[in-house]
# Entry
Amino acid sequence: MHNALMSSSRGASLGFARAGLFAFASVVATTGCSRQDPPPKQARPETPASAPSAGAEASPSPLEPQPLGTKIVELETVEDLSEDAANRLIEFSDAVRRRDVDAAAAYLVDDFRGTAWSALTPAGEERLPWKVAKQTLLPPAAPVAADRTQFLASLFALIEPLEKIDFVFFKTRGAEFEADRSRGLVVLTANIIGTSANGAPWSLYANAHGEVRKAPDGWRWSVCVLDKAQIVTRASPPLVDVAASAGIDLVGPRLGSPGAGTFYWRGAAVADVDQDGRFDIFTSTHDRTVFYRNRGDGDFEDATARFGLAVAPGITSPLLFDYDGDGDLDLFCGRVGWEVDGVPNGAPTSFYRNDGAAGFTDVSDASGIASHRIAFGATAADVDGDGDLDLYVCGYNRLDAVYPDSWFGATNGTANALYLNGGDGRFKEVAAARGVAGRAWSYAASFADFDEDGDQDLYVANDYGPNNLYRNRGDGTFEDAAVSLGAEDVGNGMGCAWGDLDGDGRLDLYVSNMASSAGNRILKRLAKKDGSATESTLFKLAAGNSILLQGSDGSFRRLPADAGGVGASWAWGPALLDYDLDGRTDVYVANGFISGASLKDT
# Structure
């Protein structure tokens, strides 16, 4: 038995995230369209099917912006201008979130025109599970232009009933600009999330297109044509955040603040540690560890010292499992350690034996677990069929010191580790001999008997490249069957989970990956659309999460994104569960990067 819940941040700093985007753009430029190629023809950014074309010779709508004349075609310039315009819309978003009409007005030109939000008319309502209603709204057939005051008044009237506004994001999805940089045409989405007076969730998602103009203080929004909107509501809150009242609202310092210069520490392990029938929680920040004991009355107590778990912090992958078969759960803690010319650096992995009422005892050295390795994920199973749980640890690398040698096939990560349990309290590391070491940048792994032959197989999610599906040969050695079974899922793998997602009785895979709106935007500008393997790989890198369904022959196929369940943006660890007890497997995905006062921090 083992439980692990991991959620983390990726990228040593915002500078890394930005550098990664530019590097991605460089990969696209050199593989999809070289500098020797003629500049790609610049088409208007893609718009929803219901949106009229901004490049039409004549438009019956008084809202449509004028088409551009001579357009900028140099990619780097277009992307710089796109980012500048996007940042201005982010600042506008923040003003809306704060309900500051005057501040929001400063980002619109004086002669702004657009679709009034109040002009959108209902076009049907869909009743979804869990008492959720989704209403679709469309613009009128004969739109009337609203001025700046009317547009903002209708927007703020829409959100006025909300008790709380959690999130507002007007996001640029595509843009192109006049050669003199005086104005640009944009495609955007609007996302607003909040809660109604009774605490029930409320959200809006809208598609739009329009125009921005250059002003002395930066880009200003000049035209907004609303194409479609959807409002999703629920009569009552499905879940309530009780972390503070339960006593587990541990808050770590924001990435980049003093003492928190890396993203490494993260994760939590949840299980019944003291065998009282209730789930407890172990977690860590960069400077402390915490063990929350479940008191059984809805509250938790900090029992870290009493259980001997005030250990070295900075833990990357805590995992609880019973390694010695005595009925209680022991604790593995991954950390970030490495060696330079044989000299240990960083912090070693550690292992703590659960001795019941006496608490935990450090057996890192005695068990053979202690080592200086960059451990980013851990999972346990009996891989050799001897009745003892073995341990698999994912090896990543130091992003503060090493860059991957490929953006979609990196092989300079640190080796993964497989610790075989000898049944005598000691482990032996055998990953290379058993065929599961690898040198990818491995982030997470999960065991399951996917082929139902009685032994445990292993899926490994890798950053910067294809994933591994190690099939157990039955003797505790493995072969990588990812390619032959269609389970590679090339991307920036952050997490994985097994479950029956289509109800056919076979185990399927949910793989969480990073998604990149900027990457998709760049690719659409440069893609030759020739169906080449390189182009397909690049689009996959920016695509986000994947659902891999297992067929009757044991192979996997990727479910199309429009089937749902994969839109999680910058995703981390997934969990599969039957949330509403209807017999079907639901998906929960942790996502996001940095949350700050400005959405530029995300």
